[in-house]
Write a structure and sequence with these properties.
22% strand, 11 helices, five-stranded antiparallel beta sheet, single chain, Heat Shock Protein 90, 12 strands, 371 residues, alpha+beta
């Protein structure tokens, strides 16, 4: 990782290790700009912090990086990343650096595996920023290494439990639908009404299961998945979709010519859930939904207004506080999906009653939209 070619294994990467004393390490913190309280902040950080020079060797590491790798600080400083990365992971790290250098960006990240001194393999997320010399040449990296074992275990458990639950729910619901269809064929009117209620409840449960799957697989925090999206075009497509799926619904839009923002693909899910809620919870035969997109210098707002009964205070409280309790239980997952997607882009979901009291207003507010 040199200024000329960050992908080469140069002599700098293979330079022999030179131990560094504590005084030298402290001096280096100051020489690299981490003076006074900054040096203390770096040392106390929970994530591993590091500096790599243009020759590809560690020049600074904090205590968390030492604990992560199990190497002494004196073993790390002066060594190259192959001390803690396998050959394939090191090569992928270099490729990522080269890709960032060829792009307009100055930062990147990679999921990789650190091999500790004792031989443990720890999954980590490594983030880095390119450093430049005064002459504008490649000067190395500054970055963070985060142990993601707990996060990965949590994701794996959620994934397994979600798949098992979805499989069982789907199988049991198919059984319920089958028996309900048999009941509907009965001449007994009571059985027929009971079958319709069973099918209705089962359909709601199936929909809830699918929304849970969507939350598990489609909604997540990953800024690298954000795309320049025309929210006006997205809204128009959703309006057409819901007019086709709900022919009786009156879906009206008020849209500017174009509003472009950096949002993930899941943003479509958030707006879709708000529109679906506005239709499903309206007791009228021809539910009215109004959708508006507005933008100014600081925010972009996607507004969905309905003519439904008031949203329960418990739902609003659950969304606003970010948690459900036995006493504060939201009726469904749709609002949570919209709220989670809003969070992924640093925005928020605002729920309120319309000023005329004739319906509700749900607004996704985006900040720092990348326009």
């Amino acid at each position: 990782m040199t200024a000329d070619n960050p992908g080469d294994r140069t002599e700098g990467l293979e330079a022999p290790h030179r131990e560094q004393t504590g005084d030298e390490h402290t001096r280096n913190w100051h020489e690299n700009g981490t003076v006074g309280g900054y040096a203390d902040l770096v040392e106390q950080a929970e994530d591993g912090l590091y500096l790599i020079d243009s020759a590809g060797t560690f020049t600074l590491v904090n205590q968390a990086f030492v604990e992560l790798t199990e190497y002494e600080r004196t073993e790390l400083v002066g060594a190259d990343p192959t001390l803690v990365l396998g050959e394939a992971d090191f090569a992928e790290f270099n490729r990522k650096i080269q890709a960032v250098m060829r792009s307009d960006s100055s930062a990147g990240s990679i999921l990789t595996t650190v091999v500790t001194k004792s031989g443990q393999h720890k999954p980590v997320e490594v983030r880095f920023s390119l450093r430049e010399t005064e002459g504008g040449e490649y000067g190395g990296l500054a970055g963070v290494a985060r142990d993601i074992r707990a996060r990965r275990h949590r994701e794996q458990k959620l994934d397994v439990l979600s798949r098992v639950l979805r499989h069982n729910v789907r199988n049991k619901l198919n059984l319920i639908f089958g028996h309900a269809s048999i009941l509907k064929e009965s001449d007994n009117e009571q059985y027929h009404r009971a079958a319709e209620q069973i099918e209705s409840a089962a359909s709601e449960l199936m929909s809830l299961s699918e929304k849970a799957r969507t939350a598990q697989t489609e909604v997540g925090f990953n800024p690298s998945d954000d795309y320049q999206t025309d929210l006006v075009e997205l809204t128009e497509h959703l309006a057409v979709k819901f007019r086709r799926e709900y022919p009786a619904a009156r879906i009206k839009t008020s849209l500017p010519e174009e509003v472009v923002a950096d949002v993930p693909e899941s943003y479509r899910i958030a707006v879709s859930e708000l529109i679906e809620n506005a239709i499903e919870h309206n007791l009228e035969s021809q539910p009215l939904v109004r959708i508006q997109v507005t933008a100014n210098d600081s925010t972009i707002q996607t507004v969905v207004e309905d003519e439904c009964p008031p949203i329960r205070e418990s739902d609003i409280e659950a969304i606003n506080t970010g948690q459900e309790t036995p006493l504060v239980h939201s009726v469904g997952i749709g609002l949570w999906l919209a709220n989670w997607v809003s969070d992924t882009v640093g925005g928020r979901l605002q729920l309120e009653r319309r000023e005329d009291g004739a319906g509700n207003r749900a607004t996704i507010i985006l900040y720092d939209t990348g326009r």
